[in-house]
Amino acid sequence: MIPDLILPPHVAWASVAFANGSVIHKATRVGDLNGVFSDVLAYQKRDPLDVVYHVEMLDSPADAGALYVGVTHLNAGKIGDEFFMTRGHFHKQREQGEVYFGLCGEGLLLLQSEQGNARLERVAPGSVHIIPPFTAHRLINTGPATLSSLAVWPSVAGHDYAALAEGFALRVFSSAHHSEGWEARHE
């Protein structure tokens, strides 16, 4: 007897979107990110329906030991001089880590410990980022095109946005004075 051959979900490299499998889509708009950007006046002038990022996630079981897999597509743009970014979060179960894989675009991964120590990692096609336990994380798009990153994390991890109500210790702004085109500032 020959077993059935199953075609699993895969990432279509040309579009960096999932093909095959059941996919959940979620868009995060400017209006969903109140309090995230530092320039309040510039934020208030933006259309609250503009999409900042959207996530495609494989519909996976939420059982202990299971993994979620998703692709975040972070649009290029700024509010004031601050680049578009994801909301960022700790995991509710702090001991859970996560892995990001850069698919396309260019940007930064902001990592911050519970003690407020922050660092940046460059995200680009092919980059691999191991996010340790007890570490908050946020994607920042510093490039002219969409930044897409695939993530894998334990389904029991959860998201804790409230722990970052005061924001991250670092912010990233565009800057004509730096060769990278951006600069990081401590809050």
TrEMBL record:
<dbReference type="InterPro" id="IPR011051">
    <property type="entry name" value="RmlC_Cupin_sf"/>
</dbReference>
<keyword id="KW-0312">Gluconeogenesis</keyword>
<keyword id="KW-0413">Isomerase</keyword>
<feature type="domain" description="Glucose-6-phosphate isomerase prokaryote">
    <location>
        <begin position="29"/>
        <end position="166"/>
    </location>
</feature>
<comment type="pathway">
    <text>Carbohydrate degradation; glycolysis; D-glyceraldehyde 3-phosphate and glycerone phosphate from D-glucose: step 2/4.</text>
</comment>
<dbReference type="InterPro" id="IPR010551">
    <property type="entry name" value="G6P_isomerase_prok"/>
</dbReference>
<dbReference type="InterPro" id="IPR014710">
    <property type="entry name" value="RmlC-like_jellyroll"/>
</dbReference>
<dbReference type="Pfam" id="PF06560">
    <property type="entry name" value="GPI"/>
</dbReference>
<comment type="similarity">
    <text>Belongs to the archaeal-type GPI family.</text>
</comment>
<dbReference type="GO" id="GO:0016853">
    <property type="term" value="F:isomerase activity"/>
</dbReference>
<keyword id="KW-0324">Glycolysis</keyword>
<protein>
    <recommendedName>
        <fullName>glucose-6-phosphate isomerase</fullName>
        <ecNumber>5.3.1.9</ecNumber>
    </recommendedName>
</protein>
